[in-house]
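Reply to thread "Modeling small-molecule complexes from scratch"

Following up on the discussion above, here's a worked example others can learn from. I took a protein sequence and the SMILES for NAI and predicted the complex. Inputs first:
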Amino acid sequence: MEQKNRANDYVHEVYELVKKRNPEEKEFLQAIREIFDSLRPVFLKHPEFIHNGILERITEPDRVITFRVSWEDDTGKVQVNRGFRVQFNNSMGPYKGGIRFHPTVNSSIMKFLAFEQTFKNALTGQPIGGGKGGSDFNPKGKSEREIMRFTQSFITELSKYIGSDMDVPAGDIGVGKREIGYMFGQYNRIKGGYEAGVFTGKDPNHGGSLGRKEATGYGCVYFVEEMLKGNGDSFAGKTVSVSGSGNVATYAMEKAVELGANVLACSDSSGYIYDPNGIDVETVKILKELDNKRIQEYTKFHKQAKYHEGCTGIWSIPCDIALPCATQNELEEKDARLLIANGVKAVGEGANMPCTEEAVLAFQANGVLFAPAKAANAGGVAVSAMEMSQNSMRLSWTLDEVDEKLKIVMKNIHESCHDAATRFGYPGNLVVGANIAGFLKVADAMVAHGIH
Ligand SMILES: NC(=O)C1=CN([C@@H]2O[C@H](COP(=O)(O)OP(=O)(O)OC[C@H]3O[C@@H](n4cnc5c(N)ncnc54)[C@H](O)[C@@H]3O)[C@@H](O)[C@H]2O)C=CC1
Ligand SMILES: O=C(O)CCC(=O)C(=O)O
């Protein structure tokens, strides 16, 4: 009992400390609470983590780099944005995590993403630490040249802090292979060499890995399929709603359809489409990947489909499986309650922290199978780590080879989450399982590396 109180007090005290130090950072504090809620049983079994001040240290980033990004728009006007890189924890390997270009980017969002990334990356079983970066630059409405000039300016400053054994950025919202190409080109230009492994998510024709663009979405569906299998079920014949229509959403839809599901709806930040015949993923790819169009345009090619303004309306459509693949806190408690009332069986988080804390609790309390982001969307970074391996070995694996490895990684992550949940007294709770399994790996490494 005394030990239990000590574990509870420790978690509570450190949370209060983090809150005091980061009072305005609501997304960061949300991500901290989500992990802390799972960790109490860990400190009962591992008092050495308390003795080594692991929670105090693991919640403070190694460093946060903030910088000015000046660039000239097409009219010759000087524009200034703010750039970030949060190097959160490198106990498991070089900092690794995407770069986000979106007007909402701020310190809280960067820190929550980098914190989550630390545990996600540990779950993959690959030697990568946690980081994340980005800028409040809005790529919407910018010309190709403006995007290039901005990206070059961004990486000119960031190049001082990254490197293939130091910190390896990749894409995220608003950053795909085009932007990674500009960053890679500018980095090599500044350094005067060719450092293949300094970025991942590169074009497979020049240094990237086949299967990277598909990996997060496919990986999410592989994870959910494992979770369903554990409950005697599968994607076959299920109805699915997928929020977003970007990189993660598109390939989650593609894999779900391949496994026999009927994807009925997807969205973007303006609204959602419902197609009673099932979403035609090739049309979404053409609209989004090639033409950069709004999802509304889908209805021009598929007359039976309906477009609705407002992105959260997508959760009012009855479905068996919901895959939120757009952005943080996009699925709130009211949306969860609608999905539950309409009989949803499983939820898989393709985006980072897309469900609010209240939504997650509602799903769990109502017996909905729930696959948390740091496990379910780890396929992208796992294939990024494979890209780093290929770059080091100076060879390229085939798409089938990468996909086979991805399946194994996702199966292993599911197994370790499932086992950790059982071992620590929360059988079937993959939120607790993912938090504990990821935390144990990072905490063990931090103890081994001494206090610093
Ligand atoms: N790209 C990757 O490999 C990985 C991405 N993620 C996460 O997945 C999420 C999506 O990232 P990407 O697909 O790469 O970005 P993206 O930029 O390719 O696509 C984002 C999509 O979400 C839509 N969107 C934005 N806000 C929305 C909202 N409130 N409701 C509905 N749609 C909205 C956008 O219109 C766009 O279609 C993010 O949370 C990201 O951090 C996680 C792991 C890896
Ligand atoms: O591929 C990577 O390095 C980063 C992926 C990422 O940003 C994420 O997992 O959220």
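What I'd highlight from this example: The CA atoms of residues 73 and 370 lie 44 Å apart. The two ends are 31 Å apart (CA to CA). Questions welcome below.
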